[in-house]
Amino acid sequence: MVLNITDNASLQIKEMMKEEDQDNARLRFGVKGGGCSGLSYSLGFDAEVNEELDLKEEINGIPVTIFKQDIPVIEGTTIDFKQNMMGGGFTIDNPNAIVSCGCGSSFKAKEREGTPENC
Fold first, then answer.
1. Which CATH number is correct for 3-109, 1.10.10.10, 1.10.4080.10, 2.60.300.12, 2.60.40.1640?
2. Whole-structure pTM over 0.85, yes or no?
3. Which Gene3D superfamilies does UniProt cross-reference here (predicted)?
4. Which residues are CB-contacts of 82 (< 8 A; sequence separation ≥ 6)?
5. Residues 32-47, buried b or exposed e (16+ Cβ, 10 A)?
6. What are the domain boundaries of the chain?
7. Residue 104: which residues within 8 A CB-CB, separation 6 or more?
């Protein structure tokens, strides 16, 4: 499996999907250029699926779409949701990240460096 979604993250994503109010909304996860270290995570909802370019999976009850080109950079990644007194947020644990920035939303992978920006 390319991606792991914990039970906490799954519950949060399902709630957010209800609020999206799109019949065929899927979680789209991938990477894009940018951020301090060169790559940033892309996490959102998308109803569009390109059968040639996208991988479709169901992970922990969530319909997921991943751009096939991103698989080598995100394979084995775990998405979790942490709640504390200050609120909550998603955490992404990517075993392919060789460098991560202090804010945790940008990284560099051995397979792809991306396009670093000034923070």
1. 2.60.300.12
2. no
3. HesB-like domain
4. 8, 88, 89, 91
5. eebbbbbbbbeeebee
6. 3-109
7. 91, 92
Q: Are strands 106-109 and 97-100 parallel, antiparallel or unpaired?
A: antiparallel
Tally helices (H) and strands (E) across the chain: 2, 9
Tell me the C-alpha distance between 27 and 37, whole Å.
Answer: 24
List per-residue pLDDT tens for the chain, 119 residues long: 799 999 999 999 999 998 887 778 999 999 887 766 678 888 999 999 999 999 999 999 999 999 999 999 999 999 999 988 878 889 888 888 876 665 555 665 655 555 555 55
Matching residue, tokens 């779409």: 65
The strand pairing partners of 90, in sequence order, are 81
CB 1 within 8 A of CB 53: no
